[in-house]
Amino acid sequence: MLCAIYFSFIESFIFVPITYLHMIIRNASLNDVDSCFIISSQENENYWTKEDFVNCIKNTNAIILIAEENDKIVGYITGYIVPTKNDEAMVHESRIDTNHRGKKIGTKLVQEFCNEAFGKNVKIVYALIESKLKPFYINSCNFKKTGNWIETSIRLNDEK
């Protein structure tokens, strides 16, 4: 059983793409799909497909931002504005290229995700995360713990 901790970030920001020395954070485009897929596959996970990234980029409720350093994609963050409650957003995933970790890229991506969401009239941003990421979201990103849930799921064709 996977246990997840729910976090939220409440604050008001105006979205302005930010340039950090040699890094920029920008909205993703279809040209970024291959690079995002490579980063998502670095730790032998197969959760994302290239089609998932394409669908995310095309979805009007989705927010997908790219961290680019010296014209190379070094990370991304995906999430969405909750379609049933337009004043809430959810961080779905953030990934940093394994060769670029420890440079605060993830923190900057989360901050920019929140900025963009708040710029779209979102009042609260949630992140459903693994417990090992709790220090990152609380200490680096200023999220507050808002509750504990047990993550459950059911897949098509699961047997009873």
Our measurement of the CA-to-CA distance between the termini, rounded to an integer number of angstroms, reads: 17 Å
Number of helices: 4
Number of domain units: 1
Q: Tally the beta strands.
A: 8
What fraction strand?
25-35%
What is the name of the CATH topology? Answer: Aminopeptidase
Helix percent band: 10-25%
Largest sheet: 8 strands, mixed
The overall pLDDT average reads 85
- As a whole number of angstroms, the C-alpha radius of gyration is 16 Å
Low-confidence stretches: 1-6, 10-17
CATH superfamily: Gcn5-related N-acetyltransferase (GNAT)
**CATH top level assignment:** Alpha Beta
What does this 3D model show about the protein?
24% of the residues lie in helices and 34% in strands. The protein is globular and about 50 Å long. The protein is built from four helices and eight strands. The chain has a single domain (3-150), classed as Gcn5-related N-acetyltransferase (GNAT) (Aminopeptidase), CATH 3.40.630.30. An eight-stranded mixed β-sheet has the order 2-3-4-5-6-7-1-8, with helices on both faces. By secondary structure, it is an alpha+beta fold. The protein has helices at residues 33-40, 50-58, 105-119, 134-140; strands at 3-9, 19-20, 23-27, 62-69, 72-81, 88-96, 124-130, 144-150.
List the helices and strands and how they pair.
Layout: E1 3-9, E2 19-20, E3 23-27, H1 33-40, H2 50-58, E4 62-69, E5 72-81, E6 88-96, H3 105-119, E7 124-130, H4 134-140, E8 144-150
Parallel strand pairs: 6-7
Antiparallel strand pairs: 1-7, 1-8, 2-3, 3-4, 4-5, 5-6
